[in-house]
Design brief:
Layout: H1 28-48, H2 51-66, H3 69-84, H4 89-132
Region (Disordered): 1-28
Keywords: Membrane, Transmembrane, Transmembrane helix
Transmembrane segments: 51-68, 88-109
């Protein structure tokens, strides 16, 4: 099979961009981006009221990580046995916790929205006051 002819470069064509350097995980900017992502998740969790289950999940994962496989299996079997039994109390408590958590999320969201509306109104009033005093001008 014959090799195809190589095309000649046309004048005025741009050369290929160089490949970006590989990410060094020990670089401080890499660590900062992970820290920023974790901070953003925590802030979003606080704003939406999901920080409680997130914290519970992190604590449970920490306990599970430190347990031996045998004891972790025993705990899982015990929890599943309680939920599979004919007792309704565990299910009722779980349902009650979920309902209370949902009500808490709604309350936190309502308070957060009211606070954001208050801050926006204060900012608008301050800007109007500066504009009326002639200290704030448009950039156009």
């Amino acid at each position: 099979m014959a090799h195809p002819r190589k095309r000649k470069k046309r004048p005025g064509t741009r050369p290929k961009r160089p490949e970006p350097p590989p990410v060094d995980e020990s670089d401080a900017s890499w660590n900062a981006s992970i820290a920023n992502a974790a901070r953003d998740v925590l802030i979003k969790g606080m704003d939406t009221g999901q920080i409680v289950p997130l914290t519970g999940l992190i604590v449970a994962a920490g306990f599970a990580w430190r347990m031996t496989p045998e004891s972790l299996e025993a705990v899982a079997i015990t929890v599943l046995g309680i939920l599979q039994g004919n007792r309704l109390l565990p299910w009722a408590v779980t349902l009650l916790i979920l309902i209370l958590w949902r009500l808490h999320v709604r309350l936190v969201f309502k308070i957060h929205k009211q606070e954001m509306d208050r801050v926006a109104a204060e900012k608008t009033a301050a800007q109007e006051k500066l504009h009326d005093a002639g200290l704030l001008e448009s950039s156009k």
